[in-house]
Amino acid sequence: MPAYTMPGLMTGQNTNDIVKKLVELERRPIKRWETENEYAKMQIQIWGEVKNLTTNLQTKTRALVSFTAPFATKSVSSSVEGVITGEASRAAKSGNRALEIIEMASKHQLSGVEIDTDIRLPEGSFTVYSGKSKETVTFPGGGLSELSNAIKNMAGSLMDASIIKIDKDSSIITLTSVKTGKKNQLQFSDPNGILKLAGLVGENKAQGEDTKQILSLDGTKAKAWDTSKFKKSELETDKLTQSEEGIFLKPDTAYTIPIAVTEIKERAFFEVEVVGEAPAVMELGMSFEKEGSVRNKFLPITKTESKYIFQAGDLATDKNLTGIILSNAATTPIQIKSVTLVTPEAPGTAEPLKVLQEAKDLKIKIDGVEITRETNEGIADVLEGISFNVHKVTEEPVTLKIHVDHAKGSALIKEWVDAYNELMKFSKEITSVEKNGKISDKKESDDTKATDISRDFWDNKSKSGLLAGENSILRLIASLKTTANSYYPATKENGFRVLTDIGISTGAVGSNWEKIQDGLLQIDQEKLIAVLSENPDGVRDLFASDPNNDAKMEEGVGIKLLEILKPYNQYASGIVTSKVKLLEESVAGNNKKIKEHESHLISFESKLKQRFLYMEQGVGKNKSVGNYLQNNMFRGNGGE
């Protein structure tokens, strides 16, 4: 375009510059919409952070109010380090107990004799027994490696096998039981002589016969059993009767009958033989001595032909049987012919040649009472609410310590306080009308202003939060403060009613009033540990309690806090979701306006250029006419 100039105001100005300035003036709405979008996007980010912080506080609060909150978790330790470790539940009683580890439970370890490394073993099968389990190994024939692999593949749940090479010509096989304990010692049946040729066992013997002992029952010494269920047992007319034919039980009766003390061997069972009609299922039981006291087992047993089989050895191996419990829940009398204790022969018919280590039970003493168990780990049936592992024998008695583990509860509360403070601090920053640095730890230099819109905008931002005056956030701040400082009903004796009772406050007595007004929580760690150690249930009830015993948590700091946070985090109609949706709609609307206005500017600029071209062309023509007239007029005057 020729660089013509316009007269008057346009003199000295290039028309391209003029068009550019006019277009920029017309572009002002776009700049406003872009600024609004930048502002909205920053607000979306802020609302996203509000969502994150409220969700985090919600998660930490739920951890405090859940039934699994570890306020009352107790730990187990010993006065000598490394003797015992374990955990205790809420039911465990705190205190110290005398403990002595006499002998550790051990695995059964066997060794074969030296045999030719290149030996070829025949095809066949053998059976391995350990405790109540057995596995039959089908061996296709082969060398020691094939035998070891067959044992691992088919009997790996009971024992492990390994080969030790003594020299270039000789090897031995060793076997180790998977489980510890005397009951789990390894036994073998080797009808094809495979294990014998492998140097592991001796001759396979014939299976022995079961030992049977008919128990002598004296009906005159019978005592009524569970009269709340078997109501007629105490009636004189319905009492148990006995004759040469056996014992007669009338309907709706049950009795325990003492017997001469008899040891219950592994896999032993007693048979109850009946005459005539009898129910398909009968409840039977036994009394036995365990750890200095008499225990009872009473179970429903299904009839097999004319007998009921009660597996006593599964319940009380190596214990002393002291009584038999018989019952009749049927509508007709039952005649019991006999009760026989059957002790099967040991299943192993081939004895191991070498025993490297006997299978042993754990032997311990607690408060002077000796106790045996099959394993050294996960012992949960000795002391109520306690599970422990034993690691070594003691040279002298040590102290078993059971005490409240305050570390987990303390950590849980600290995480909750941190989450509360983060939300409170951020909420006050984004709604502050005049920031003064009392809440924020952010330094001025931290603000890179990477997305500057204008200096005035960022100057205003530094003075006030982007959500200043936002009612929903202001309500959140006020509700958080109210919840943290309210009183709650104590449902238990010596319970706590306010957070300051457990060492959580907005500041110690005498603290700066402005800091207290900020509402950030502080923890008196010493006080918190003390209350967690002395009254952990009271701490938990402060966060969640059931004052009217309707099995629903309705009171407490945590419960009220969850009610406050719920509207902010609801997925579909939550406060944060709604605010973000409105902002995103605003951004989308502005983007549409920007796009439409950009299209308008292209047309507007084109029209301006066309008009200025016409104007320049007109000015050029006028200038030519003016020069022509001026020249002709000059000539005319000269001629005169």
TrEMBL record:
PANTHER family: FLAGELLAR CAP/ASSEMBLY PROTEIN FLID, FLAGELLAR HOOK-ASSOCIATED PROTEIN 2. Required for morphogenesis and for the elongation of the flagellar filament by facilitating polymerization of the flagellin monomers at the tip of growing filament. Forms a capping structure, which prevents flagellin subunits (transported through the central channel of the flagellum) from leaking out without polymerization at the distal end. GO terms for cellular component: bacterial-type flagellum filament cap; bacterial-type flagellum hook; periplasmic flagellum. Belongs to the FliD family. Homopentamer. Its main location: other. InterPro entries: FliD (IPR040026), FliD_C (IPR010809), FliD_N (IPR003481). Pfam families: FliD_C, FliD_N. Residues 12-108 form the Flagellar hook-associated protein 2 N-terminal domain. It is found in: Bacterial flagellum; Periplasm; Periplasmic flagellum. Keywords: Bacterial flagellum, Cell projection, Cilium, Coiled coil, Flagellum, Periplasm. The keyword Lipid biosynthesis does not apply. One of its GO terms (biological process) is cell adhesion. Residues 359-623 form the Flagellar hook-associated protein 2 C-terminal domain. This is Flagellar hook-associated protein 2.
